[in-house]
Fold this protein.
Amino acid sequence: MRLHPLTSLAAAGSTAVITTAAASWPLSVTVIAVAAGLSVAGGVARRMLPAVAVILVPLVLSLLAMHGLFFPEGTTVLAQWGPARVTVEGLHFAFERASQLSAAVLVLLLWSFTISVPDLVAALSTRGVHARFAFVVASTLTLLPAISSRLGRIRQAQEARGLVIRPGIVGRAGAFRWQAVPLVLSLVEEAGTRAAALQARGFGSSGPRTSYREVPDPPAQRWVRVVLLLAAVAAIAARLWQPTAGA
Amino acid sequence: MSRSSPPGLAAGIEEFVFPGEQEPVLAGLEVSFAAGSLTAVLGGSGSGKSTLGRLLAGWLLPGDGGTLTGFLELAGTRLRFAGTTADPRIDPGSWGRQVGFVPQDPAAAVSTVRATVAEELAFGLENAGVDRESMVSAVRHTAALTGLTRLLYRDPATLSGGQLRRLAIGCAVISRPAVLIMDEPFASLDTDGAEDLAALVRNVVRDGAAVVILSQRADVFLHNADTWLVLAGGTVAAAGSPTEIVAAGALEMAGVVRTRPHTGLRPLADAGYSSAFAGPPALELRDVSFTYRAAQRRGWFRAQPGPPADIVLHGLSLAVSAGEILAVAGPNGAGKSTLLRHLNGLLQPTAGSVLVKGRNIGGQPAGRVAAEVGLLFQQPRDQLFERTVEREVRFGLERRQPAADQAVQQALAAVGLEHLAGRHPAELPASQQRLLALATVLARRPSVLALDEPTVALDGYGLAALDRVVRSTTAEGAAVVLVTHDLDYARSIAHRLVRLDAGRLLPAD
């Protein structure tokens, strides 16, 4: 069964909310494991990994530095350098927050990497979401592929003129300084042309809109979405009523 | 065709000036296009054709896009512009419903957020709120007219240059606009595509639309036009029927290319060529096959089952000697550009090998092969990335060497752009962008010159420069491989002609 993009969004969103609200590391770790498993099964793990690394590595490191070294409530000191103390409690707290955050980031990234953008745009516009907004949503998800294909074209043009780029990601990263300025300039220029084309094809008009693409939305999935949203609300409510639960 | 009917579209342009510039790009120009008529606006590179087209089509808006004094008239409503803030504002959406436009660069017309050719065609209809049933039949009808039926479920990003142009034309005609403006629509279309387009234009005119074709080539089909307007220096230099204009000799003065009517295939200009240069062939392909890696996602989340990966090239073998000109002709999507990208190592064959001067280039980075093989890309915008013309040509040459200065000067002089060294490449008209791209290739003095559709977008002066360059580089011992859909051009310059069809090499005739 194919998931409606809003169903998968509801699933990802409510999972992120529930894990955050529950603040229980076994749940967070389970969610991380499931998301990682799904990304491998879905064949997106390789593309997702750089994005995951870019977002999570600095976040997790800063959490470890903050709470691992400076956790006032910590009593079991493992090591100490002046004011900085590594405490068991601090590490535990940092680990908890990091797993919670990682779980939320992973499920949302998994959603964005597995979603069919055209389906999402069609689903949003049939729900009366403003076309410009739907386009912005779609563009944020297609921006990275667009930038990378533009970058690829510039790189090819430069290679064709004698820029030697060693194969592999390191070689490409090293050559990026040659492409940075042309890339930004060409993206800005292209945005201008694209805007004129979109306007002339009636994109800015305020009248009703239809959709050529059909995105099936079976009633069962609508119910699933309602249940997921209720679960997320319930998790927040439980957290607010029992602020210490799980912490 | 009725001459007395009110014009579908008319314009009186006293002056149009781009923001930040002093000189007007269009001046003293009055045009009018009647319903059910075909008009060709002819002019060389930089004559103001594309600016006029975009202004008439609502892609360039008076106000933000530049200062207009004069008027625009659409379907009987005249908008007057005085170049002040009190001027009327054009709503590009409602203007665009009545005026369809195919830009010179077809990729600029594509929305980029639609997953298939069918959805891209429907984009304008969706925005106008057309019901789905009508959209489906309009898409089917338009696809049949433009030869896109077999490509309806392809991702627009994977189309070849000629296929993309068909798509841009389809997007412009699908909503049946009262006026249809096309900028160089015949460029990069193969014979079938050009015939399809000619039939389509006839249909659209018969249905009562005003069709305006902007072109720097007086193509054979354009002789069917009711009126020719010759544009030079931003104003109408001559107007009249094709016969009158040809008789007055106005085309040559404006740098418009005249194509000869087809009188059967002419013989090769220089058949039976034998190289005067000793040594191994400058370029050799041995059994080269190529398949694009399947790009679709695997696994559970596959959005739509895509077609299996196609074999693009099937065991190609050929050799080109030093000083020889080989032309590869073939329809849109035959794999011509893919073939050229193998010559300088931008693509590596899945099987077989490519040899330059007897050395296998397999596994070498493209940047190293570039010293021997220069590639002119099909689209200048894919080749140009620098801030000035001079920097563009200098890129990749040894820095701070007098030899590099000289190479830059010579390359620019060879294509006649030396007076534009300080300009921004994106500001140049298409023909000069193309010549600049050619100069960047020449500056490296390659021993193999690979040219992808070199004639597209060139005006009369540009074609003459291309001809000079190809002949002089081969005289110096370079081998030239050029890929073109223009058989007539291929025959006028090549020593040998082969045909590439569905990835297989065939003899030309």
Summary: Strands of chain A lie at 77-81, 84-87. Chain A has two domains: 5-115, 121-200.
